[in-house]
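Note to self: keep these together.
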Amino acid sequence: MKPPDSWADAAQVAMAIIQLFGIPFVIWQVRELQKSLHSTTHSNIYTHYTDTIRWFLDKPHLYPYFRENARLEGSVPASEMPLRRAEVLTLCELTTTLFEHATLEKKNMPGPTWENCWVPYIKASYEQSDEMRLFFKENRRFYVDEYCKLIENEILTKADPQLNVDRK
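Structure:
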């Protein structure tokens, strides 16, 4: 190879070398950015999950309303009902916002996390809680359409028809 005739020729050779090595470097950076996004999404959602699930540790009397289809009405004496109702409805809202958060972040989750983890967990939560189903029906308007469509088209419609409950 003969030496370059001008600085322009040298610059072209340098640019070719930079492009040759630069493109793989940019691809590597994009992949690393994607891993970072997955990691951050995973961390944020599981922090939200831990904050929500901590309620069951702090208030184990709420567990039956969320995992055993216990109904709020008639479950405690009338004098205790305002506090119990506030606790159950607050945990319904916290859980619903967790699920909405996961729904909005599903494209940023690593691998099959959405389909293999979150969808079954959301489905089980609605199947095991009359109060969650009631809360969703009464408060649907406060949640994004993507989440509402998931619940209405994939979660509640595929569930047992007896899961469709109303407040007495």
